[in-house]
UniProtKB/TrEMBL annotation, chain A:
Molecular function as annotated in GO: cysteine-type deubiquitinase activity; ubiquitin binding
Record Pfam families: Peptidase_C65
Site (Interacts with free ubiquitin): 217, 219, 246, 251
GO cellular component: nucleus
Known EC number: 3.4.19.12
Matching PANTHER family: UBIQUITIN THIOESTERASE OTUBAIN-LIKE (PTHR12931:SF15), UBIQUITIN THIOLESTERASE PROTEIN OTUB (PTHR12931)
Annotated ranges, domain OTU: 61-257
Protein name, UniProt field: ubiquitinyl hydrolase 1
Catalysed reactions, as listed in the record: Thiol-dependent hydrolysis of ester, thioester, amide, peptide and isopeptide bonds formed by the C-terminal Gly of ubiquitin (a 76-residue protein attached to proteins as an intracellular targeting signal)
CDD domains attached to this UniProt entry: Otubain_C65
Family, as annotated: Belongs to the peptidase C65 family.
Lineage of origin: Eukaryota, Metazoa, Ecdysozoa, Nematoda, Chromadorea
InterPro entries associated with the record: OTU_dom (IPR003323), Otubain (IPR016615), Papain-like_cys_pep_sf (IPR038765), Peptidase_C65_otubain (IPR019400), Peptidase_C65_otubain_sub1 (IPR042468), Peptidase_C65_otubain_sub2 (IPR042467)
GO biological process: protein K48-linked deubiquitination; proteolysis
Automatic annotation (TrEMBL), chain B:
Biased composition annotated in UniProt, kind: Polar residues: 218-229, 272-282
Residue ranges constituting the Ubiquitin-like domain according to the UniProt record: 5-80
Low complexity: compositionally biased ranges: 82-91
GO molecular function, one term: polyubiquitin modification-dependent protein binding
Pfam family, one: UBQLN1
Region (Disordered): 82-101, 218-289
One GO CC term on file: cytosol
Name of the featured protein: Ubiquitin-like domain-containing protein
Keywords annotated in UniProt: DNA damage, DNA repair, Repeat
Bias kind Basic and acidic residues: ranges: 235-245
Automatic annotation (TrEMBL), chain C:
InterPro entries: Ub_conjugating_enzyme, UBC, UBQ-conjugating_AS, UBQ-conjugating_enzyme/RWD
UBC core domain segment(s): 3-163
Record organism: Caenorhabditis angaria
Annotated protein name in UniProt: E2 ubiquitin-conjugating enzyme
Functional summary from the UniProt entry: Accepts ubiquitin from the E1 complex and catalyzes its covalent attachment to other proteins. In vitro catalyzes 'Lys-48'-, as well as 'Lys-63'-linked polyubiquitination. May be involved in degradation of muscle-specific proteins. Mediates polyubiquitination of CYP3A4.
SMART domains (alphabetical): UBCc
ATP-binding among keywords: yes
Single GO molecular function: ubiquitin conjugating enzyme activity
Family matches, as SUPFAM superfamilies: UBC-like (SSF54495)
Family label: Belongs to the ubiquitin-conjugating enzyme family.
Active site: 88
Any one biological process term the GO annotation gives: protein modification by small protein conjugation
Pfam families assigned to the protein according to its UniProt record, in alphabetical order: UQ_con (PF00179)
Length: 257, 405, 164
């Protein structure tokens, strides 16, 4: 075996290991006290993070962790939306309308009808049960934790994100800086599973779903005092209903006290 | 029988629909298809469904092939899979040249054996005639752009067009055609232009076809079987005696015209193989005549002839000089060709005639007026017409030509 | 019932009714929707013309999130098919497979791909091999350095496939 092959082999093992470790976490965990986040940091060795976590704990009471499989942003937002819809029938119906509308929007953009229709149908059929209360909260979270079901729904989220970006390609193309076309970018970064969302993905999903989000950034740049967060879209007037906690490379859902 | 079902059988180019009983066998389906598919025998038909080649005894209902269903139909070629492109050679005379050329009786030379003989290959490629042709970017460009396959590719991939306008890329492309090793080297070096060409759909295949259209015919032309001067010689003999006194401006035969008697080769292959064998090692011949005999090239050359710019560059003084020099520097060339030709051996008179004419022709080529005349597109056009006339004569009144010879 | 099996059943039914040019697909085992048998018809105007190449498509349970594997069971000599018959083209690789980092990333597996798009990619691979990442290094080398032998070898496979 050559060095290069060896290297690939080792990398492979590492990926497998990370994948397996991640699979020990549920795709969508239960809501747990936010204090758990504080426990992750040591006041002595990483005071920046520790302080930030403590500060956030004043505002947020709970956290729902999402599996770090590259789909976490899409999954977190989706679960956030679901929770809103489960409490508010009007909003649920509205979101169903939005999703039903996406089928045609995607086809119009040239997505292959075969598979696109399938993803759209599976998603809307599933979501109709939520709207019509033909399912229970328990069943919903079971589905969300079933790899096959859950990821199918995520594919839909990715497709509409890509769809929104493509519908507004003139606005977004300038943000792609490596010479790729927007279409290339979308198929590589958005439509492909297990790919982390970056800024375009975040914007796209928020605007495609019509749900604003607030992201709390847990990184070293965070100031220890004062609410340091981003609302997406930046010009939204009300406090978004969905809040996410960003820690480098990962998103979880957090809940106001 | 009211409950027939309709089955569509789809080939890459056509769809045939048949109406048949639901319980029919695959064999019966094939019988029905035979009435619609032209020029096929039953054993050539291959019906494919759900990943399987269907057996004759299976029935449609067993296979769950219902009304309105579509199956794949492949009509297998009657013979073995056709030969690889490099070895492809005309196997039948084209309708315009029904009479096998007496001198052109040649084994379809084995390009494959040439490929396996780097030394021989190098000789061919080092031949000044071949080289000067290949190293003339204008010539190459015109040749490439007039190649229908290349044109198609350009239409589909306009970005390749810039290659033609970049002399350095052109040069590399030519080098590649000349030299398969270079081709490999370039691939290894990941030369950007080439990679781009290969990266586009069909690019690789087009390159390969070009390679086969240009290089393989050059190789083919060297084994001595296809007498490169056959057409030259015939026309020279006939036309001049025919129109003695008129001389000059039109008299020089067009060596670039459509080949006479392309491909009598296959028929007399054995004989010429032997004669080549007798010669020990075939002499590298500036074999444009033979090259013209290859199917790809002859169409290409015909196109060239109808392109004035092309004709001019072909008949440029350098080209003529190279050709002359090649013939002069190797006086035994003609002899060996004449000697190798079974017809030449059988007819000593004819061989003599040929030998006598040779110096005359060489002289003509040296005549500046002649060279100039050759560069006149209208003259070239006239030659084409003469040739066409001769070929009609050959079909309609062979005995006449025989008398002239 | 898993989503993947529903999607596969739909595709199978569609392909049975209206097959796509260049290949034919069915189940290798009627009780296993995840294992398909495919017959690739050697594309016209290629060295593979005239051949009927059998292959197996193996779908994972988490299809279409993850791509299927494709393996030729007929002998086939091609730079992008390894000697065991495994097809190595980028769209059959998950985006997470970073060892294929030198390929153009947009060609990776996407959930929107179907059996049809996979097979069309395979057929275009037969027409235009990708030399950048050969799975059969010997075939790639032979194609470049000794094209005559390469053609012979492919022709042998074509003949063999006709007799199977």
């Amino acid at each position: 075996m050559t060095d290069a092959e060896n290297e690939i082999e080792l990398q492979d093992q590492q990926f497998k290991q990370i994948e397996n470790e991640q699979k020990m976490f549920p795709l969508v965990a239960d809501r747990l006290p936010f204090d758990l986040v504080i426990l992750d940091y040591d006041a002595e060795t990483s005071p920046d993070y520790y302080n930030k976590a403590k500060e956030l704990a004043n505002t947020y009471g709970e956290i729902r962790q999402i599996r770090g499989d590259g789909n976490c942003f899409y999954r977190a937002v989706f679960v956030g939306i679901l929770e809103v819809c489960m409490k508010n029938e009007e909003k649920a119906k509205q979101f169903l309308e939005t999703c039903l509308g996406w089928n045609d929007r995607l086809l119009k953009l040239g997505f292959p009808d075969w598979t696109t229709n399938d993803f759209c149908e599976v998603f809307t059929d599933w979501f109709k049960k939520v709207v019509n209360k033909e399912t229970t909260s328990e069943k919903i979270f079971d589905d969300l934790n079933d790899d096959s079901q859950s990821n199918y729904l995520i594919i839909f989220m990715r497709l509409i994100t890509s769809g929104y970006l493509k519908e507004h390609s003139e606005d977004y193309a300038p943000f792609i800086d490596d010479g790729r076309s927007l279409a290339d970018y979308c198929s590589t970064e958005i439509e492909a599973m297990w790919k982390d969302a970056d800024h375009l993905g975040i914007s796209g999903l928020v605007l495609a779903t019509g749900y604003n989000i607030r992201i709390e950034y847990m990184d070293r740049t965070a100031a220890p005092n004062g609410g340091w967060h981003y609302d997406i879209p930046a010009d939204c007037n009300e406090t978004p209903e969905i809040s996410l906690l960003y820690r480098p490379g990962h998103y979880d859902i957090i809940y106001h006290k | 029988m009211t409950d027939l079902i309709k089955i569509n059988a789809k080939t890459p180019t056509a769809t045939y629909d048949v109406e048949i009983a639901p319980g029919a066998t695959v064999s019966e389906l094939k019988d029905q298809l035979l009435t619609k598919v032209a020029n096929a025998t039953k054993s050539q038909l291959c019906v494919i469904y759900t990943g399987k080649i269907l057996k004759d005894e299976e029935t449609l209902d067993q296979l769950k092939i219902g009304d309105g269903y579509t199956v794949h139909l492949v009509v297998r070629s009657a013979a073995a899979p056709r030969p690889a492109p490099a070895a492809a050679a005309p196997t039948q005379p084209t309708p315009q040249q029904p009479t096998p050329n007496i001198f052109g009786a040649g084994a379809m030379p084995s390009a494959q054996s040439m490929m396996n003989n780097p030394e021989m290959m190098r000789q061919v490629m080092d031949n000044p005639m071949v080289q000067s042709m290949l190293s003339n970017p204008e010539f190459m460009r015109t040749m490439l752009t007039s190649n229908p396959q290349f044109q198609q590719m350009l239409e589909r991939n306009p970005e390749v067009g810039h290659i033609l306008n970049d002399p350095s890329i052109m040069r590399q492309t030519m080098e590649m055609i000349r030299n398969p090793n270079m081709f490999q080297e370039m691939m290894r070096n990941h030369d950007l232009a080439m990679r781009n060409l290969q990266g586009i759909p069909g690019g690789e295949a087009a390159l390969e076809r070009l390679y086969n259209d240009v290089q393989a015919p050059l190789l083919n032309s060297t084994t001595g079987g296809n007498n490169p001067f056959a057409s030259l010689r015939n026309e020279a003999g006939r036309d001049r005696s025919d129109r003695a006194g008129q001389e000059n401006s039109e008299a020089l035969p067009n060596p670039w015209g459509p080949p006479a008697g392309a491909g009598a080769g296959a028929a007399t292959g054995t004989a010429s193989n032997e004669s080549v064998g007798n010669n020990q090692q075939p002499t590298p011949v500036p074999g444009l005549g033979g090259m013209l005999n290859s199917p790809g090239m002859s169409s290409l050359m015909q196109q060239m002839m109808s392109n004035p710019e092309m004709t001019r560059s072909l008949f440029s003084p350098e080209m003529m000089r190279t050709m002359r020099e090649t013939m002069r520097s190797n006086p035994s060339l003609m002899d060996s060709i004449i000697g190798a030709s079974p017809a030449g051996q059988a007819n000593p008179q004819l061989s003599n005639l040929m030998r006598q004419r040779l110096p005359e022709m060489l002289e003509m080529m040296e005549n500046p007026e002649m060279i100039q005349a050759m560069q006149n597109p209208r003259v070239a056009e006239a030659f084409r017409q003469i040739q066409e006339g001769v070929s009609i004569l050959r079909t309609e009144a062979p005995q006449l030509l025989g008398m002239m010879g | 019932m898993e989503q993947s099996s529903l999607l596969l059943k739909k595709q199978l039914a569609e392909l049975r009714r209206v097959p796509v040019d260049g290949f034919s697909a069915g189940l290798a085992d009627d009780n296993d929707i995840y294992k398909w048998e495919v017959l690739v018809i050697g594309p016209p105007d290629t060295l593979y013309e005239g051949g009927f190449f059998k292959a197996i498509l193996d779908f994972p349970r988490d299809y279409p999130q993850k791509p299927p594997k494709m393996k030729f069971t007929s002998e086939i000599w091609h730079p992008n098919i390894d000697k065991e018959g495994n097809v190595c083209i980028s769209i059959l690789h998950d985006p997470g497979d970073d060892k294929w980092g030198y390929e153009r990333p947009e060609e990776r597996w996407l959930p929107v791909h179907t059996v049809e798009t996979i097979l069309l990619s395979v057929i275009s691979m037969l027409t235009d091999p990708n030399f950048e990442s050969p799975a059969n290094v010997d075939a790639a080398k032979m194609q470049r350095e000794n094209y005559t032998d390469f053609k012979k070898k492919v022709a042998q496979c074509v003949r063999k496939s006709q007799e199977e």
